[in-house]
Amino acid sequence: MQISASQIANHLQRGLKSLYTLHGDEPLLQQEALDAIRACARAQGFSERSSHTVSGVHFDWSAVLAAGGSMSLFADKQIIEIRIPSGKPGKDGSVALQQLAQAAQGNEEVLTIVLLPRLDKATKTGAWFAALESFGITLEVQPVERSALPQWIAQRLAGVGLKVEPGEAGQRSLQFFADRVEGNLLAAHQEIQKLALLFPADLHGGVLTFEQIESAVGNVARYDVFKLSEAVLAGQPERVQRMLDGLQAEGEAEVLVHYTLAEDIRALKRVKDAMGHGRPLPMALRENRIWGNKERLFERVLPRLSAAALADLLQSAHLVDGIVKGLKQPDWPVSGWQALHRLSLQLCGLCAAPAVPSPRARQA
Q1: Which of 126, 141, 156 is the last residue of a domain?
Q2: Are residues 6 and 137 in the same domain?
Q3: Which secondary structure element, helix H or strand E, spans residue 261, and what is its range?
Q4: CA-CA distance, 143 to 5, in Å (whole number)?
Q5: Of the residues 109, 141, 173, which one is the last residue of a structural domain?
Q6: Do residues 202 and 158 touch, judged by C-beta distance below 8 A?
Q7: 162 near 201, Cβ under 8 Å?
Q8: Are residues 182 and 107 part of one domain?
Q9: What is the pLDDT of residues 164-197, one digit of tens each?
Q10: Are residues 43 and 121 in the same domain?
């Protein structure tokens, strides 16, 4: 059975199960879900806890299986936590996890919790994960999207008795806060705790001004190239420049950033060409394996991009490919990062432009 992180509290109120699997790449949200399960278990008499970290293919799974079958002399209920940082338990681990999942059925003396990173589609279809999902509760920790981050911050501030100013001033504060902590929820949580200490809720009604937030919240944002791709396609030039500066400061490889941008341009060109040959947009997206959030972004930006503009972008991407590998190109910056800025903003500007009218609309 699958549930979301937001459902864990209501789920635990209805009763604790004997097997939980938490997977995802948001450490803060995964830890909070784990803490909630532990607290519920302690309230029900689970007073012992053992932890096992699977490190490599030679991990001894027999110790984990034995822990589940042994009873303590001083406590009749125990928690067994199994951490698999790689997300790959191996052949022996696959068998052991299936045994543990089956053994959890009806066992009220042992609570088993399996902790995993973000899993790909192929891993989720494996026999061991299917067993965990079938015999227990699986909880996928989803990242908080940038568009939802200001509201998430507002909710977390409310949890410590704080809030921003009403109206436009408060929205500005939340947007500034989100820019400073984007991609780093754990640091966002720490910044909120710091604000609670600096500006206690009993002062001024717990209302935070923009100046207070600006002076207290550090720049702890963490970016990745996939989020950069979304920002470019969403037509957000200020965010794109901020993310490129952040990626450069974090030491991200120029080649990887260029590859991500170039892949988007090539995909846009392929879909546009397919549409030019009479393919409906949904079919062209499926044939080019575009889905999820990127599918929605492509649907929005493709009407704004002409075939000629995409051809120019493809040529620009080819030139920048040489620049990030040390070649010089006429009329282009020598620096790889400056060239990436120019390419990103070129595509971003087109994605933010008004939609290109159809030939029929132009005739009308």
Answers
A1: 141
A2: yes
A3: helix 254-276
A4: 10
A5: 141
A6: no
A7: yes
A8: no
A9: 999 999 999 999 999 999 989 999 999 999 999 9
A10: yes
CB of 224 closer than 8 Å to CB of 230: no
Q: Is residue 363 included in any domain, yes or no?
A: no
- Could you tell me what percentage of the chain is helix, strand and coil, using 3-state DSSP and rounding each to the nearest 5? 60, 10, 30
Q: Which residues contact 211 (CB under 8 A, 6 or more apart)?
A: none
Give the angle 292-298-303 at the CA atoms, nearest 5°: 150
The predicted-structure confidence for 131-157, as pLDDT tens digits, reads as follows: 999 999 999 998 898 999 999 999 999
> How many structural domains are present in the chain?
3
10 Å CB burial of residue 260 (0-12, 13-18, 19+) is middle
The tokens 């053994």 sit on which residue? Answer: 103
Which tokens in the block code for residue 123? Answer: 């891993």
What pairs with residue 114 in β-bridges?
21, 82
Q: What is the CA radius of gyration of the chain?
A: 25
**Interatomic CA distance for residues 34 and 37, integer angstroms:** 5
* 277-304 residue pLDDT tens: 999 999 999 999 898 888 999 999 999 9
